[in-house]
Amino acid sequence: MAKRASAGKIAATLVPGDGIGPEITAAVVAILDALGAPFAWDVQQGGLAAIETAHDPLPAPLLDSIRRTRLALKGPLTTPVGGGFRSVNVRLREEFKLYANLRPSHSLIPGGRYEDIDIVLVRENLEGLYVGFEHYIPIDGDPHAVAISSGVNTRAGSRRIAEFAFDYAVKNGRKKVTIVHKANVLKALTGIFLETARDVARAYEGRVACDDRIVDACAMQLVQNPWQFDMIVTTNLFGDILSDEIAGLIGGLGMAPGGNIGEGAAIFEAVHGSAPDIAGKGIANPLALLLAAAMMLDHVGKPKLATRLRDAMSVTLCQDKVRTGDLGGKATTKELTAAIIRRLA
Ligand code: NAD
């Protein structure tokens, strides 16, 4: 899918992002260089960083670059809470019709609260409550007296994401897909998703098992017995929340990668945000973005490089025991980066 650059290189857009973004993207690029990953980076600013330089959180050169490369590795972008500009992450997903958000969570470090977690969550990325159809109704001088939000799920969008999940299951040897919804209360909005995903599941009978859960029960069962889950397919908001919960089972947000995938482009990123509380301290864990880079290598048909990268991470964490603070260690971002590079040598 990605456009080839000269000399066997694959052109890819690199967005350092906000907060800890520049620190973890520098770490990831250094490790990918040591690995010999074939990316030719076109570095572009987005988010708060781009407001400072281009007065626009989603400037035209960034969009043009992704239109050209159709492949990006993106650091986290800050979104103001409440007011301010609309999420640049959401706008990028809409712009490039990145309808599938693939979020695999796999335990890399043994001995944690949960062992051997291996769950792939597929989140619908363009519809639901993230369409941003929101407004306030002023009453008696209070401009925010009533807030109204409308969600949109379509038959076609639900079918497309369910087919993505079941196809992924077949191609990657996964056994079961659990459809997660809230069709008991949001009967239309998530009922259409459940109905359509069940219909898609019928075409995979005998190859991939299927069951379903109401989102609140699913959230509890993920804590009580996460091993019953293999893959989850769900709507946009529920996918956002449950993927953070699942990240918590494998050591936290520093270990959770994601891929935003559409027919014409793919953007890989960490599940976590810009972590303003630790930005600039040199202690951020770069592994979530590094795992996203491994997904990117798989995506461009370089699975051997992806496996070498994951193996080097695993040995660094488990044998060398070099870990950042969020994983109970003392290593800085730079120390962890150097340790992984040593294991790639
Ligand atoms: P966050 O994910 O940035 O941070 C939550 C907690 O996890 C913080 O305590 C943080 O220090 C920690 N954490 C996150 N990543 C870490 C890492 N790599 N290493 C060590 N610790 C890490 O969530 P937040 O604070 O709610 O959001 C901050 C900003 O990020 C907001 O503006 C939000 O909109 C944005 N955001 C962006 C994305 C994205 O770009 N895809 C995703 C989520 C949130």
What does this structure look like?
- The protein has 345 residues and is α/β, with parallel strands linked by helices.
- 39% of the residues lie in helices and 23% in strands.
- It has helices spanning 21-35, 48-54, 60-69, 88-95, 155-171, 191-202, 215-224, 236-249, 287-299, 303-318, 333-344; strands spanning 10-15, 39-43, 71-74, 100-106, 118-124, 128-139, 142-152, 176-181, 209-214, 231-234, 257-261, 266-270.
- A ten-stranded mixed sheet has the order 2-1-3-12-11-4-5-10-8-9, with helices on both faces. A two-stranded antiparallel sheet has the order 6-7.
- The chain is globular and about 55 Å long.
- The model has no long low-confidence stretch (mean pLDDT 95).
- It binds nicotinamide-adenine-dinucleotide.
- Residues 20, 76-79, 89, 253-254, 269, 272-278, 284-285, 288, 326 line the site of nicotinamide-adenine-dinucleotide (NAD).
